[in-house]
Amino acid sequence: MSLALVLKENRDRIIHQWTSRLHSKASERYGKRPIQELFTLTSEATDANYLALVHNDFSKIDNFIEKITRLRLGEGFTLSEVQKAFDVYRSILVPILLARLREKELHNAFSQMNYCLGYTITKFSDYFQSLHEKQIKEYAENLEEEVEKRTKELVESEAKYRLLVEEINDGFFINKNGLIVFANRAFCDMHGYALSEIMGRSYKDFIAPESLKEVAKIYKRRMKGELTEQLYFYYRRHKSGKRFPTENKVKLMLYQGELIGAGICRDITERLEMERRIYESENLAHIGQLTASLAHELRNPLSSIKMSIQMLLQTIDFQGSNRRTMEISANEISRLERILTEMLDFARPLKINMEWVSLAEVITSSIDVLDARIKEKSLVIKKKLKDCPAQILIDREKIEQAMINILLNSLEVLHDGGFILVFTKKISNWKPEIVVEITDNGPGVNDGDIDYIFDPFFSKKKKGTGLGLSNVKKIVQSHGGRVGAENKKRSFCLWFTLPIKETQ
Q1: What is the DSSP letter of 304?
Q2: Predicted model pTM
Q3: Which of 193, 231, 245, 265 gives the lowest tally of CB atoms within 10 Å of its CB?
């Protein structure tokens, strides 16, 4: 089936899903927009994407970007809100393509889709930013003219200017002789300080150490007149000590006879994360195709070899080390088959069958499956299932699989007599969740590796594939949850969350 046919057959489905998600899940601002408005815009965007994906015609996308930029900027939407709205199209289209296209067609479709979305988001971001900066620039120029007049209109214009600057979503500041002499609310929020804590401080206090040398060099060149305006990337320093990726654009201006730098800084954490996700999805698509092909090619020969060894063990009376050698070979082939199964699980699109079940029963059942191995190593395993909801909407089989993978991770590293604690608790941030923690007194993970243990094929074990915890992450995220790990004082903890929804 061609990409064009898939898009035509699923046009109405894509439009309705896109409209529904924007209205119910995208953001509070989207939730307040009329449903008919969102339906009209998603219909227009879907048809524009069709022309780009099938005919490589981006003219309608260009027109739509200009229209939606002016519309959303006028309504007070942030850059990231509209970027996410574009990205919803990909999250809807991916499962449709996976279900309807063959491998070669799927690869071409993913490449075209990622190029199309990358083009759309990049062009939209640039256009949105240029309009935004144009507003600030016009006000800055007007301010300089009004300062020279020193009239009553100066006060009124400055008041209007300050109101505009306070309402924009990006940080605005004025740097005079290396000191911050003005900052808007967004700038204060971005750095975690009150305005009184910012005024009069050196700009260097708000730059992360790794970016300080380069930013200071740019500042010196600007003050020498070598740079009048420049957009650059750096890490800003938050009051908490954390660092965040930021874009800064500063223009040198003459104010009351002195040179000042008027700047706009923008947090780009979400944009970089979106770029990372797009890049990761491309890589995972390629890896998935490769692993699926490899697993299918190897499974049949391995099964034949295993069956042959089993027949030889039954028909020939091997003695001593010869029999042991044959048994080891059979066991190793079984291990290879398990690895292939993990690879197929990783490559195969995940299908979730949600049902109302008891999470406590799912956890207990997962432990019971491994009971023999737990007893074999004389392990102590305890459960503290606090705040466990009586019924939770999950895929029982998939969550059991995730629990077993995590428990196996502990079983493999624990010595005889080791300890495992399974603990649950309810948390409420912006949505209620149940947290499941599996803690063991094993050796833990090197601090440098802990951020990568859920990545595909990452493993420090001699016989590990690095797919067990990756499949855990895949399962949990498909339920709308999160995963994580941490080294504690004398233990190691793997955890995941599941959203708690109202019962049926």
Answers
A1: H
A2: 0.41
A3: 231
